[in-house]
Amino acid sequence: MLEFLQEQLLIFGRIITILPLLLLMTLFMGKRAIGELPIFDFLIIVILGAIVGADIADPSIHHLPTAIAIVTVAIFQRLIARWKIANRKVGRLLTFEPTIVIQDGKFIDKHMKKERYSMDNILQMLREKDVFDINEVETAIIEPNGALSVLKKPEKNTVTREDMNIQKPTSTLALPVIMEGTVYRDVLAEFQLDEAWLRQQLANHGVHELHKVFFASINKQKEVHFSLKDENSVAIPMLRH
């Protein structure tokens, strides 16, 4: 019993000493390590977690080497961060490239597959940016840290008080009616429409086969906007990082 209590006190003491050290090392590594978490910084966090977890869980591990390992990892991260800033090639090797997943209001499905982002992922991230209609998007980019950056089309940007002394929201709600070739008939029924009407709308734009449609949505004005699979009708800008 006494030995058990001693182990618990030892673990408690390690937690009390490790937390301030981790805080100091995190501040030393800088905001970037916790604010953006690019791939290298993510690995650093994983390594630190493994070191600290082993030290706390196993009282037989000597405490001082753990503290030295934490400081060493923090210094290593700081040196690599400086090297990445000084050398662009190193920076590009240690981070993901930004990837365009929407251009001119159309999904770029090959880029989504490459980054392993589903349509649902992108739609949710758009909603978090207060974008409920893909047709409002000029460009959407998956950043190296996994976040979505959105540039709205100029005519879809909100007019501000600085522009006209009014606040004019322009975002509208568009509901999916086709996702990867599957027609959502229940959504069409809400608009008192059917699949034949949808096929006609697509045919008016030269699309005669539903299985070629990657995504299509309809808004309150009964306007249909769609993206084709392997979309090649838009020019995709080259991004460098």
UniProtKB/TrEMBL annotation:
Keywords: Cell membrane, Membrane, Transmembrane, Transmembrane helix. The keyword Cell membrane applies. The keyword Cell inner membrane does not apply. Its main location: membrane. It is a multi-pass membrane protein. The chain crosses the membrane at residues 12-30, 37-57, 63-81. Coiled coil: none annotated. Residues 87-218 form the YetF C-terminal domain. It is found in: Cell membrane. GO terms for cellular component: plasma membrane. It holds the Pfam family DUF421. InterPro entries: DUF421, UPF0702_alpha/beta_dom_sf. Belongs to the UPF0702 family. This is DUF421 domain-containing protein.
